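Pilot study result, target chain (493 residues):
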Amino acid sequence: MSEPWLITGATDGVGLALARHCLANGQEVIMVGRKALAELNEEMFTARNYCQTDLSEEESTEKIIAYLEAQKVTRLRGVIHNAGIGWVGELAEQSAENVEMLTAVNLLAPVRLTQALWGRTQRVIFISSIVADFPSPRYAVYAATKGALDALARSLRAEGGGPHIQTLHLGAVRSGFHAKAGMTLDDSVRDKFPSAEMAARWIAGKMEAGDLQSTMGLKNRMIRGLSWLLQAPISRGLPWRFGEKQAGMSASPGKHAVVTGSSQGIGAAVVEVLKLRGYTVTGVDLSLQGAEVTADLSRADGVSKFIETLAALPPIDLLIHNAGINATGAFAGIEEEKWLPVVRVNLLAPMLLTLGLLQRKRLAKGGTVVCISSLSHYSGYPGASVYAATKSGLAAYASSLRAAFRPESLRVLSVFPGPTRTAHAREHSPDNSKEHRRMDPVELAERILRAVERGRVRLVPGIGNQLSAWLGWMAPGMMSALVRKLLFKKLQK
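Predicted structure:
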C-alpha cells in the first residue's frame, strides 16, 4: 500500500460515504471503525484496509499504529478525523459517563492520533461542525469538544513545520448521527439535509484544494458568520459594545461562592476579593493550603468527591471555574502524561462539575457561573495548543450553558484573561523580562467580580488584552504569526 488516506468513523454516515468516494476515484484508504470486520457486510472492507478499534479507549491510537505497521504503511496521504459522537437533551439529563465518552472520542482521540502520526502524514483534516462557535444548549458538550478541536487546529497551523492542517465545518447531514445522539427528527425535516454522499464529495473537493478552513453550504456559512459576530470580544465602555448585559447580581454577606484552583494565582486573588465582599467561600485545590476542600480535578473520582462535598453545603450563588494547568512546547514533543491532565482539569472537570451540581440542584436561582477561558481563544497559542483547545472548548461550553438558562435562573460570565502576574505565567512563559506589564491577579479578580455584579456575559480585562483580542478576531492569520514570533519561537530556543 502506497500513501492511503486514513479515515476514522468510516463504517457509517459521512465517513463511509467518503471512503466509498475515495475508493471509487482510485485512492487507497485505511478505514477505522468500532464494529468488528465480521459485522460489516460490504465487500469494500477487508483485513487489508480496515482497522477495528474503539476511539473512546485510551489504547485506540496504539492499535491504529500497530495496524499501520503490520500493513507496512510508513506514510499517509492524510488523516481525516471524521469520527464523532453526540448527545442531545437537557443539560442535567446527560450522564457523567457520557460527557467523558464524548470528550474521549471527539477530542482526546484526535489529539492522540494527530500526535502519533505527526511525522508520517502529509495532512491532518478535522471534520468539525457549525456548532463549534454557536450557542448549543441541547448539545453543549458536543459543541465544546468541536470548539476545542477548532482551536487545536488553529494553534497547530500557527506552529508550522508539520503536516498541512485543515478544518472543515459541516452542518446537519442526512445520516444516523442524530438518531444515535438521541434526537428525533421528522422525515420532512431530515429530508432537507444534504446527504452523506453530498457531504463526502464536498469534503473530498476541499481535501484536494487544501483550504485551511471551509464551511459546507450557504446556510451553514451564514450561521457561522453569525456565530463569528457573537464571539466578538465585547468590552465595557468601548463603542462596539452591544447587547451583552444581563440583570446583575448583588454582592451581600452570606452568599456562597465556590472557586476551583483556589490556592494560588488568579484563584487565590478571587478568593481574597470575594471574602472582602462578604461571600462565604469554598475553595478546592490539590492541597488545603488556600483551600477548604482537597480534590484532584484531573480525575473523575476527584470531581465526584468534590460534588458530593458541595451537595452537603448551602446552595451556590457563584461558581467560578478557575482551575487550569498548561503544558508548553512543540505539539509533537509533549508527552501525553503532560497534556492529558490539561484536558481533564481545564475542560472536562468544569463540565462534570457543572453537570453534577445541576443534577443535585445546588446552583442557586439567580446565581452566576464564571468560566475563566483565555485570551488564546482569540489569538491562538502555538506552543500550548492543547491548552488553547481546552480554553476555547470551555468558552463554547459557557456559551451553550448561557443559552440554556434565562438570566433570572442562572447567568454565565466568560472571562478571557491575558498575561497575568502569577507563578503559572512565569513557569510557562519563554520570557519573563517584562513580567511587570502583566495584569496583577487582584486587579483581575476585582474586574471579574464587578462583571458578575453588573450582569456581564463576556469580559476581556484590560485595554491591551482587548486590542489583542480584536486583532485575533478580525485578523487571525496576522495574530497567529505575531504569537508564533513572540512565544513559540522563543519556546524552541
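One observation from the pilot: The first helix runs from residue 13 to 24. A full batch analysis is planned for the follow-on phase.
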